[in-house]
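Record 1 of the preview.
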Amino acid sequence: MRQILLAFALLLGGTAVAQEPKEAPAPPKPIEDRIVSTKHKAMIGGASIAYTASAGTLVLRDEEGKAKASVFLVAYTRDGVQDLSKRPITFAYNGGPGSSSVWLHMGAFGPRRVVLDDEGRDPGPPYRLTDNGESILDLTDLVFIDPVITGYSRPAPGEDPRQFHGLREDVESVGQLIHLYATRNGRWSSPKFLAGESYGTTRSAALVHHLQERYGMYFNGVVLISSILSFQTARFQVGNDLPYPLFLPTYTATAWYHKRLPADLQGELRKALAEAESFAMGEYTLALAQGNDLAPGRRREIAQKVARLTGLSPEYVERVNLRPVIFPFTKELLRAERKTVGRLDSRFEGIDFMAEGEEPEFDPSYAAILGPFSAVLNDYVAMDLDYKSDLPYEILTDRVRPWSFREFENSYANVAEDLREAMARNPALKVFVGNGYYDLATPYFATEYTFDHLAFDPGYAERVTKAYYECGHMMYIRKADREKLKRDLAAFYRAAGG
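->
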């Protein structure tokens, strides 16, 4: 028959190609857990500590066994521990949303860290690792989690990634991962802690409540680094005057660092901040509340005081209706020098193509750490931890957007109530809150405001430890503050039963 078809085609002046029967495509391979374990030692707190590192992915499945996602983690467990019921374990992650756990992992808590200079600045490539003398592995075992789409974590084939990209969706998937790890590794009886940074603190507040309610898993402590629980404190929108007084003290700290304050405020940082805090919660808040009823003379007086405490000109403050906004502030403060200041850490300076404009081209404080952390993480996981993957390790990605806050539609996301409820149900739960004075992403005064409104039970305040650092969002990049953070956390873990 094939010869007949070919002859017929040739008679018509054409050509014919015989069609071979097609094979059905092979079904996709089922995804499975893939964990690689290696042995190491590191100098931590002046002592050599032996530990096992386990890097790889665990598969999240529904109750029928269908794979939903593959989640990447790196776990560190101290060798030689005989009784796990006495050995704390901490589950750690960063925020974004869309951030991997690289920052806390390779900058603060892990046994190895990125080498920066003592102030946390980029030393220039090539980048290298060193033992992290301020790691908390001597206090607790560690599990660093990359939520779905960050790091090497991905949805299972055919699964819609949007099912993981929302406040509650994220809490459920990370909670399932923690439950899975604790169950498989016999850690239910261990003292347990959560540690999150930035949006990771939002996750932690909701997650500690979720783990209690969904699995009956109670925690000893929650570590919040650069906290944001109530988003109303950081949303510069018409009709919401709350962020302006809450950001003001960080504007003051920034201007102090860059020597833009009057001489009488350029002495001690805390003295300048005390004046800013008092003005922010007093005259400034009342003036903003008056709106158009604020008398012209009083308006000029308030503008002068805002200028005094921010390093901005009174004319600029009046032009922005007494309300400096974060990104224009980072562009305006050093505009005369054609420089900008950072958002994550306002100590850092950048240079834009044009000194004009309302907002900076980039955040110089993020640019200073992206290169070192990216290079070191990719090399470390493959070469030291022996986990190989051709996927790009997503350090900080927009692929998680849009991020759903559906339960807070027409309002501001606020998980402080989740934390309060968790503390009410678990009287042993304690909270540590670390704040950087130069953090314009999650200002320390906004965090204080949130915790001042957490509850009216005075006992709650006694269970919250606040600590402050002369650095930014990632206070641990600065040597002196990384050392202080370790001391503060050691005291917290002891107090929380760790």
